[in-house]
Amino acid sequence: MLSEEKNARYTRVGPGTPGGNLLRRYWQALCPVAEVTAENPKKRIRLLGEDLLVYLGAAGEYGCVAEKCVHRGCSLYYGFIEENDIRCPYHGWKFERTGRCVEQPFERADSPFKDRVRLAAYPVQKLAGMLFVYMGPDPAPLLPRWDVLVREGGTRKIEIRPLLNCNWLQTQENAIDTTHTYYLHGHQSHVKGLGDDFAPWYYRPILDYEFWVTEWGIEKRIKYGGKHPEDGLWPPALFPNMLRIPQGRVECLHWRVPVDDTHTRYIVESFIPGDSKTPAGDPDDVPVIYMPSDLTPDGDYSLESFFSQDRMAWETQGEIYDRGKEHLGMSDKGIAMFRRLLDEQITIVEQGGEPMALVRDPEKNRIIEFTSHSVNRLNTGSPSKKEGSVNG
Predict the structure, then answer these.
(1) Is 180:334 a contact under the CB 8 Å cutoff?
(2) pLDDT for 115-173, tens place per residue?
(3) Residue 153 CB partners (closer than 8 Å, separation 6+)
(4) What CA–CA distance (Å, rounded) separates 261 from 225?
(5) Of the residues 133, 166, 187, the one at which a domain ends
(6) In the chain, at which end, N or C, are there fewer CB atoms within 10 A of the end residue's CB?
(7) CA distance 175 to 163
(8) Is 366 inside any structural domain?
(9) Model confidence, pTM
(10) Contact assessment for residue 10 and residue 345, using Cβ atoms and an 8 Å cutoff
């Protein structure tokens, strides 16, 4: 059980909160490149409790600034893009994408006033069809070049899942929860008759499991029995809010992006290996799929997909799960490990240090690779999987 104070320490994401300060040390997935284009150059987006405006300047540079002008609070979404700057539609104050105010019409030309105001602004980078933003202190770490994003010889796609009405930590703890797959996915899918693509793989008895803290997060070892026995290592849950997962031939990266304390944006990018001569494709040209709502007409969870099954578990815990009422067992040791890790990294930031899993070395950042492999594979068969599926 966690105290109310500890729970808030981990779950609150706004500016100045312990958890929010930690999350701001990492590049966060913002949105697909396809959502901010020359034809539609502005997008409002909420992230870490802040209302932001992402825009594409006429000179080709991306900006990410606070949506409301620091003058009188008008939305800059309706403003004017001038080269790479943004001008407020209310009184014409103009800001560089760094947040510096460069013009204040109707103020004295020699007034130093504009030098005393600043719009919150954050750097943006694009990679593999996605825009990423860094909202922390300088110097920013390198944008991690995860293998799913930069491998060659295959194709990619991005999935935008329905917005989750719950705190980000509920989704990330699920990434470290080994045993939930048996009932939530395996048994549920078996009962609902969802077929061989769901039940056999996750309906295997879980005989043993282990967890380790690694350079990038928490790694899992799972030993399965049943018709498809296997003793295997799996890539880690990447700290703080990602999951790197293999799904058949498909390699996937899941982002659980905190919108605010009670909402989470869920984005998946997948890499499907192809012929070695197949180009990876232009990073701006990655297809984006918007997954429809998986709720029934009555507003219930359909439970007919992995996402719907997980979403039911996450959202029914409440907007912010009250961890003071839970009773963890031995099977929850991965959850306890992650919470200790989260607390340690928050403390490091509070003491002025640098948390884990940041990338500073360009050589190391050429490609950050992960592979799943068996410790002692007990058979050579594998269950049927839908090629190209990115459900997890």
Answers:
(1) no
(2) 999 999 999 999 999 999 999 999 999 999 999 999 988 999 999 999 999 999 999 99
(3) 273, 274, 275, 276, 277, 278, 280
(4) 39
(5) 133
(6) N
(7) 18
(8) yes
(9) 0.92
(10) no
- CB count within 10 Å of CB 64 equals 26
The answer to whether residues 227 and 383 touch, using CB atoms and an 8 Å cutoff, is no
Residues 78 and 51 in one domain: yes
3-state secondary structure of 146: strand
Structural domain of 34: 27-133
First-residue to last-residue Cα distance in the chain: 27
Residue with structure tokens 């944008």?
143
Q: At what angle do helices 333-350 and 4-11 cross, to 10 degrees?
A: 70
370: nearest Cα among 189, 183, 226, 216: 216
Gap between the Cα atoms of 298 and 361, Å rounded: 51
- Specify if 388 maps to a domain: no
The 3-state DSSP class for residue 259 equals strand
Question: What is the chain's mean pLDDT, rounded?
Answer: 90
Phi, psi of 160 (to 5 degrees): -105, 115
Q: How far apart are CA 242 and CA 239, in angstroms?
A: 6
Give me 84's structure tokens.
Answer: 């790479």
Looking at residue 99, which CATH number applies to its domain? 2.102.10.10
